[in-house]
Amino acid sequence: MTLLFYSAGAIALIATLSVIISTNVVHALVYLIISLLSVAVIFFALGAPFAAMLEAIVYAGAIMVLFLFVMMMLNLGQATEDEERAWMRPSLWIGPGVLSGILLLQFVSTMLTHDVTLAPVEVSVRDISLLLFGPWLLAVELASMLLLAGLIAAYHLAKK
Amino acid sequence: MQEWTGLLPVFPLAGFLLLVLSRGRMSRGIAGVIGAGSVGLSFLLALGIAIATLNNGGQAYTTVLWQWMQVGDFAPGFSFYVDGLTLVMILVISGVGFLIHLYATGYMADDPGFARFFSYMNLFVAAMLVLVLADNLLLLYLGWEGVGLCSYLLIGFWYDKPANGYAARKAFVVTRVGDTSMAIGLFLLFSQLGTLNIQQMLTLAPQQWAVGSGIAVAASALLLGGAVGKSAQLPLQTWLPDAMAGPTPISALIHAATMVTAGVYLIARTHVLFELAPSVQLLVAFIGLATLLMSGFTALTQTDIKRILAYSTISQIGYMFLALGVGAWSAAVFHLMTHAFFKALLFLAAGTVILSLHHEQDIFRMGAMRRRLPVSFWCFLVGSAALTALPFTSGFYSKDEILLAALHQEHYGMLLWSGGVLGAFLTALYSFRLVFVVFFGRDRHQSHATASHGHDDPQAAVVEAMSPVMFFPLLLLGLLALGGGFIHVPVDAVFGSGAQEEAHASQLVHTLMILIPIAGVMIAWFVYGSRSYQKAGEHLREQLLASGIGRRLHRFWFSGWGMDTLYEWVFVRPFLTLAALNRRDAVDQIYGWVAQAARVGNSAVVMLQTGNLRWYAISLVGGLVIVIGLGVWR
Amino acid sequence: MIVWWLIAVLFLGGALAWASEALDSQLPRVVALLALLGSAALVLGLALAGQANPLSPQGQWWVLADASWIPRFGIRFLVGVDGLSLLMLLLTVFLGLMALGAAWHEIRERSGFFYFNLLWTLAGVVGVFTALDLFLFFFFWEVMLIPMYLIIAIWGHENRAYAAMKFFLFTQVSGLLLLFAIVCLAWFHAQQFGVFSFDYFALQDVVLEGRVQTWLMLGFFIGFATKLPAFPFHAWLPDAHSQAPTAGSVLLAGVLLKTGAYGLIRFTVPLFPEASASFAPFAMGLAAVGILYCAKLAFAQQDLKRLIAYTSVSHMGFVLLGVYAWNLYGLQGAVMTMLAHGFSAAALFMIAGALQHRLHTRDMQRMGGLWSRLPMLSAMALFFTVAAVGMPGLGNFIGEFLSLLGAFQASRVATVFAALGLVLSAVYSLWVIQKVFHGPLLLPAGQEREAAGGPADLGRVELLCYGLMALGLLWMGLYPQSFLAHSASVLEALLQQTGTPGGG
Amino acid sequence: MDAIPYEHGLILAAVLFVCGLLGVLTRRNIVFVLMSLEIMLNACGLAFVVASARWQHAEGQIMYLMILTLAAAEVAVGLGLIIQMYRRFHTVDISVLNEMKG
User: Fold this and answer.
1) Kind and range of the H or E element at C81?
2) Nearest to B332 by CA among B341, B323, B342
3) Are the C-beta atoms of C263 and C227 separated by less than 8 Å?
4) Mean pLDDT, residues B224-249 taken together
5) CATH number reported for the structural domain that contains residue A65 in this entry
6) The predicted structure's pLDDT at residue B455
7) With an 8 Å Cβ cutoff, are D10 and A123 in contact?
């Protein structure tokens, strides 16, 4: 399992980096899907098979397909790719890079203070469901409202 | 009659109101009748009051019209106090005033602002009567400011010429400086004595103050400030010559006969205070002396007929101040009265000359007018004789009294007397210079008029403008100027017995005082009048002017001893510069800086608001980094 | 009760005027006139009631009305009228009518809303002059500010937004200080007596130590001195006045400035007697500086309304001087100056407005010699200018003279300098007369060609307004006793209660 | 089963988050920005799941579910916006959207 975790983590990392430096939108999207799938593997390794399923189905499946549709509608071609390349000036990366570096440093420095190892125990779908439709019922309702709102907004925005 | 005292200023005031409310729709005849008639009524009433009072043994009395206000202990009333001094003043004001009004109905007959003119004149008379009738200093101040306002309005009567407006403003502002001093004097008097009632003050002051004490000196000096402003004495005399911009009857009424003598009246009225402050009283004498000499010299060089008379007025009021300064209160009042007669006469005669010559005022463009303008000539001659104090004229008696009193001043008697006599010599010189230049010699007007206007019929141009309404006042004033010296002013009771013992002097002094004016007349005749000496005289004048010192002296005297220039540079220009520099309120600009700082801060912050989404995101992350950094690495 | 009615009539009248615009655009001014006449009748009723019953059980207060408002903080709806308030109320309703007269023909756009603002401003002023609960007082203080802001901002002249904003900021910031001081005072009351109270009478019992008292006094002082306005806080006034419509200027100069002076007399000194006493020399110095400085500034102006605005500041210096002399002469002088200046400044602003209405300019460089064209207007202008100069026989003289007389007892130096203001006032006033009404005729370009000989002289409404104000000034000048008598007992009681800090 | 140090999971989440952030900050193409946002959200979800494993409790996963919902809604709206933007400006460059300038 450890091996699974580290290898999937490495893949996720590489894929993600490829997303943000890629110039071709479709390539980037594919990398993103890879990244998401490897995160799903990590979930599995951490003993969260339900989350892994959802990650694969909803994220890598549904959401990315949505992206794909939109990209088809936009019909971005070679011109866009050249443009992207022109925009990728190294000087542009300095400021955000420094800031992100500091932020990462901060995260890491907070996280390294504890030393607890994970003994992945599978959390069953049943546990999740009991919690979800028990104490978190209200959150579910809110989430459904949010989705409804997103639906209406997306419909309104995308309409001509 | 005495119970009607309150009506004295009411008649002219009513005239004023009628004329104002008619809004210029009244016919000239009615306006003239109202204007002059209201003052005439006042004069009749004043005469009645005077007779009644004198029959009563000159007993002073008070008439309370109403309580003006009552604030704590401060309770001035609208109340009039009548004694000998008041009687003299109201008779002079309403009498001379009436004559001048009458004259003005003729003089101003063609003026479009006829009704406005008489409304101002009536208001003036009302205010002047209030001034002299007031039983407290606050009411006196009301009249005091009222006459100042009317003086302003009348000097600037022909308002379309900016120069007149300037002269009017100058008159008002300069006298206002004096008035302010007087107002402060009022505050001081009230805070010390607890009353502004003149009679109470005159009783209380000697009880509370020692002779020469600081308060007495301060109070009388402040009142003196008011007096020199109104009476055009040094150092506030500069407004009077310019005030001649007004119509000539105004110059006669306000700037010769009545208003300018208000300062003399004030000092005479509050003489007890001045007696308590001998140093200030001496100052009064020296102010008078300096003024009379200075303006005498200046009058010698002037060429404008009215300005000469104006400087002579300043000079004669200087005599009155001299008299006040040496304690000859009644002599001052006497001279005030005679001066009112002969100076009004002179101004009115000058007005006739000016009107006849179509508003020509330069005496060197006149000449040989004695045949063309006989009435004016005789009036002028009488007036000048009285002004010069030739024997048996009114001026002789009053000036004689003043000079004798000056001689008897304790410490500086000789100095004051000889200054006064020098002044008398100058008076003779300038007044007969005027007479001889205007009425004798060559007719320069004709040649000038022909040259400048190309008149075909120059003879027709000079016809004496004279109507009965103008002739009658001239005649009466001429008689008064001649015989006014025999009037006895009933003021002994006012000034107490100590002030006026009969002055004795050696025969030499008397002779000198008669001869010196005559010598002045002779010299004037030699230089300006006599045909035989005229060449020599002109030669002499030219030589004097040619020499550097003579020319400079002439220019210096002509400019009124440079006082105008001095004030221009010391007060007017700095004020104007300051006003121009700070037109936009420095304080406002300080607040402007606050606003500016806010604006600059705003534009600095606006620069952050680029509208660039990535910039917003990066700022957001920057903020996040800082906040987390604060939490992690605290 | 009658005071409540007074305030209510103005508030309701304002609302009705606004509503009535929908029916007819001529209706609002009639409604406003009726409301003002109603309030005038009520004020006269108050005056008669006061005369009939000069000493009610509450001492000097003729009419007191009390109701609970926010009991938790001891805030009450406490209003009362005494002689001083009554004079101010008379001034308010009279000048309200004058402002209505000025607006009668001038305001054509959105007239309903204009009269709404006008009446609400007046209602606020009436509230300020009668409120005896400091919270209520502050409430009315704000009520009179905002409609006035709208009047300037909507119906003002070319630079109105700036002027309105400046007016608002100055008043609001100073009002904040005032509010802070009021709340502090109530808090101290709660500390000492256990309950919150904003009651004027209760707050007088609060004992404050020296420094605290000074700071709170300064809070009140700045609040009121900005409104007055006193010298360093005057910067808003010239802009506000020059941009406001005529009716707004009339109200500002005639009434709103007086609320500052009223506040000083009624609140600042009685609530903080010791601190005020030690502050008095400084305040009198400010007054003298203000008189001279603003007189000089007035002379430098070319905008007629701006000039008059600066003269207002200069004249209000006499009020400040009189108040801080804190003796009967000075206080009576301040009250008389408030009344007389209310009339004369209002009239002068109306004249400036009338000139602007006719000539479409306020620039004095473009006018001249108007006497020959507009004799009646010019004569009126002369009359009110002369009144402003302080001509004896007119109200302003009485006020200024008494102020100076009182101030002389307290500070001779300040008085002497302030008296120099009399000279400067002559300088600038006569300059106006010379520039605008005397001199050769000069009309702004295009005016000459207007039909029937250019601008018209006074109309009937105008003549009535000016005539009434002129009569008022004459009355004040010749028989001021009828006004002084009203305020005398009040002022004497105030003096007795505080000692005489400024007197010496 | 081998133990995975729980920080490593979190650090992975942090690194992914920062990568996404870097993308948001640097890319001008709005599609990339939206994708980067997805990465960041996903990283958050990862962190929750790690926490869920750490405490052996299902609530972390519930949070993950919420985030998932949020991401779905966000993408729907975001993509709608992209389409609108492309229609109006014919570009996907976010630099043209600078009308919020002060």
Assistant:
1) strand C79-81
2) B323
3) yes
4) 86
5) 1.20.120.1200
6) 45
7) no
My answer on whether A117 and A138 are in the same domain is no
Q: Which among B611, B617, B618 has CB closest to D100? A: B611
Residues C98/C250, Cβ–Cβ less than 8 Å: yes
Give chain B positions within 8 Å (CB) of A102.
Answer: 625, 629
Work out the mean pLDDT of chain C and round it to a whole number: 86
CA distance D41 to chain A (A): 11
What is the tally of structural domains in chain A? 2
Stated pTM of the model: 0.82
Residue type, A25: V
Weakest-pLDDT range from B368-372, C109-113, C319-323: B368-372
The pLDDT confidence band at residue D102, using thresholds 50, 70 and 90, is: low
What is the C-alpha to C-alpha distance for residues B9 and C393, in angstroms, rounded to an integer? 14
**Distance separating alpha carbons of residues B337 and A113, to the nearest angstrom:** 114
- How distant is the Cα of A101 from the closest Cα of chain B, in angstroms? 10
- Decide if A99 touches B, using CB distance below 8 A: yes
Does residue C262 contact residue C125 with C-beta atoms inside 8 Å?
A: no
Q: Same structural domain for residues A106 and A144?
A: no
User: Are the Cβ atoms of D94 and B614 closer than 8 angstroms?
Assistant: yes
Considering only CA atoms, which of C185, C293, C302, C180 is closest in space to residue C231?
A: C293
Test C369 with B71 for CB contact under 8 angstroms.
Answer: no
Q: Give the SS3 label for residue D29.
A: strand
**C68-70 and C75-76 strand pairing:** antiparallel
3-state DSSP of chain A: CHHHHHHHHHHHHHHHHHHHHCCCHHHHHHHHHHHHHHHHHHHHHCCCHHHHHHHHHHHHHHHHHHHHHHHHHHCCCHHHHHHHHHHCCHHHHHHHHHHHHHHHHHHHHHHCCCCCEECCCCCCHHHHHHHHCCCCHHHHHHHHHHHHHHHHHHHHHHCC
3-state secondary structure of B79: strand
Residues A150 and A117 in one domain: no
Which pair of structure tokens corresponds to residue A120?
A: 């992945």
Same-domain pairing of A102 and A112: yes
| Per-residue model confidence (pLDDT) at position A119 | 66
DSSP state of B489: P
Q: Supply the ipTM of this predicted assembly.
A: 0.76
The Cβ-side half-sphere exposure at B286, using a 13 Å CA radius, reads 9
Q: Which of D11, B176, B549, B230 is nearest to A114 (CA)?
A: D11
Domain that holds residue A158: 124-160
Residues A128 and A84 occupy one common structural domain: no
The per-residue pLDDT for B164 is 86
Interface A–B counts its CB contacts (< 8 A) at 22
Q: What percent of chain B has pLDDT over 70?
A: 92
Instruction: Write b or e for each residue in C190-227: b if 16 or more Cβ atoms lie within 10 A of its Cβ, otherwise e.
Output: eeeeeebbbbbebbeebebeeeebbebbbbbbbbbbbb
- The CATH number of D11-90 is 1.10.287.3510
Same domain as A60, residue A93:
yes
pLDDT (mean) for B87-107: 89
Decide if pLDDT at C451 tops 50: no
Report the chain A residue with the minimal C-alpha distance to residue D54. Answer: A118
One-letter amino acid for residue C83 of the chain: G
Mutation for D interface: B599, B603, B609, B612, most D CBs within 10 A: B612
CA distance B599 to chain A (A): 30
Are A30 and A79 in a shared domain?
yes
Asked if B564 and B238 count as a contact pair (C-beta separation under 8 A), the reply is yes
- Domain residue ranges of chain D, discontinuous segments joined by +: 11-90
Q: Determine whether the interchain pair D98/B612 forms a contact, defined as Cβ–Cβ distance below 8 Å.
A: yes
Provide the token pair at C82: 């005494």
Residues of B in contact with D99 (CB under 8 A): 611
Residue C73 confidence (pLDDT) above 50 = yes
Query: Are A132 and A119 in a shared domain?
Result: no
Of residues B618, B632, B633, nearest to A99 (C-beta): B618
Mean of pLDDT values over B483-508: 69
C335 pLDDT more than 60: yes
